[in-house]
Amino acid sequence: MPTPPRSLLAAAVVLMLLLLLSPAGAQETCSGIAPAPRRRGAWMSVASFGGRGDGQTLNTAAFARAVARIESRRGARGGTLLYVPPGVWLTGPFNLTSHMTLFLARGAVIRATQDTSSWPLVDPLPSYGRGRELPGGRYMSLIHGNGLQDVFITGENGTIDGQGSVWWDMWKKRTLPFTRPHLLELMYSTDVIVSNVVFQDSPFWNIHPVYCSNVVIANVTVLAPHDSPNTDGIDLDSCNNVCIEDSYISAGDDLISIKSGWDEYGIAFGRPSSGITIRRITGSGPFAGFAVGSETSGGVENVLVEHLNLFSMGVGIHIKTNSGRGGFIRNITVSEVTLNGARYGLRIAGDVGGHPDTSYNPNVLPVVHSVTIKNVWGQNIRQAGLIRGIRNSVFSRICLSNVKLYGSASIGPWKCRDVSGGALDVQPSPCTELASTSETGFCTT
Ligand SMILES: *[C@@H]1O[C@H](CO)[C@@H](O)[C@H](O)[C@H]1NC(C)=O
Ligand SMILES: *[C@@H]1O[C@H](CO)[C@@H](O)[C@H](O)[C@H]1NC(C)=O
Ligand SMILES: *[C@@H]1O[C@H](CO)[C@@H](O)[C@H](O)[C@H]1NC(C)=O
Ligand SMILES: *[C@@H]1O[C@H](CO)[C@@H](O)[C@H](O)[C@H]1NC(C)=O
Prior knowledge:
Layout: H1 6-21, E1 42-45, H2 60-72, E2 80-84, E3 87-91, E4 94-95, E5 100-104, E6 108-112, E7 121-122, E8 138-139, E9 143-146, E10 149-155, E11 158-161, H3 165-173, E12 184-187, E13 190-195, E14 197-200, E15 207-210, E16 213-218, E17 221-223, E18 234-237, E19 240-250, E20 256-259, H4 263-269, E21 273-292, E22 300-320, E23 328-349, E24 367-388, E25 395-405, E26 412-417, E27 419-427, H5 432-435
Parallel strand pairs: 1-2, 2-5, 3-6, 4-9, 5-10, 6-11, 9-12, 10-13, 11-14, 12-15, 13-16, 14-17, 15-18, 16-19, 17-19, 18-20, 19-21, 20-21, 21-22, 22-23, 23-24, 24-25, 24-26, 25-27
Antiparallel strand pairs: 7-8
The structure holds 2-acetamido-2-deoxy-beta-D-glucopyranose (NAG) (4 copies).
Family: Belongs to the glycosyl hydrolase 28 family.
Pfam families: Glyco_hydro_28
GO molecular function, one term: polygalacturonase activity
């Protein structure tokens, strides 16, 4: 056997030394997922475009003019930073452009106008076929981007305030003609960083990257009242290579959910969500801390979620799909979760969520396999949870390892159906479907 060249051996030794010397406990971060934020070549303030941060002046045109100016520069000299000074910047929806940083200074608030009558509409997403809530188009997100590259939304923890209560009221009274707007939606975009910003009171989902790649969301705070309808924190939708970390989310629906389109529209569009890391998230809300679905028709795979610190939740972890969805949910790992207070610890269910219309094919069944939930510690839990597959599409290789859920009195037992997998060190005692299957080699501590 030929001996490896000396230089290779030397390189190996150096690499080993570097590994040994690297500081113990250094935290993993999202670096490398999107290009590191760089200094922009130019700087301009929204105040120079006729904007006024007095909380009264409507700044929609000022934002549009500033973005048009940045766009006309076509990324010259490393792009442009748009500075939003301290103050309250009332605005209607506006678009972003490529090679820009939207920078919210400390004390800067971008506040959505509550005059919803002139709010523009955008087309339905192709993977949904219609608005998520109502047929037809959807209201444009307050901050919107389509087909962009190299976009940062960051600053000194300034606030993007949706003033969503007018929308929530219209939704409750059923007077809305179309689907409510998100606070931030980026479509078909790559190399995106959203960091050090507070999102507050979104009319609908707060942050919605859809058909995007290379996305980092870090150090964000998302706040909406627990009784505000469908104010999900972050919904990743048909996106790949995404990392979310170090964020606090308290909202009216799921805190973070991974989606990929809705029934026949999502199947036809066929764009999965994959390569997703989520870590160090704290929060609470009436639905799930971490969710997959229920819209998963393009498929969801290769997801790692770790270090969730959840309190006062409806459900800790919720993986949800339905007959007619098609698609797949596979290679999902969730670990290191503390859960203080929840109706359900865990739900993995094949009968959740409605359909866009009556044209879906109920015989198109999702495939769910290789889901590992490990190192979960819960207290004040009412029901351990349920794992309910689909009769003709049994959920397989579902692994629960070191999942300990406690309640004040007697915690409701696991309920399982149409599922196989393994369970190790599970409290309360796992259902027989998981405890007794022979498929356990893959499920370890
Ligand atoms: C935003 O950009 C889209 C193109 O992606 C365009 O159709 C729309 O008119 C723009 N809307 C506003 C309010 O600028
Ligand atoms: C998040 O905040 C930490 C600490 O302030 C900082 O080191 C890190 O770079 C931030 N992350 C991003 C993506 O901005
Ligand atoms: C912004 O908030 C994050 C926590 O989300 C914190 O780590 C960071 O230091 C804050 N940055 C500033 C400039 O206040
Ligand atoms: C499963 O997903 C992880 C990311 O969480 C990835 O590193 C790994 O390669 C995936 N495994 C397979 C078999 O695709």
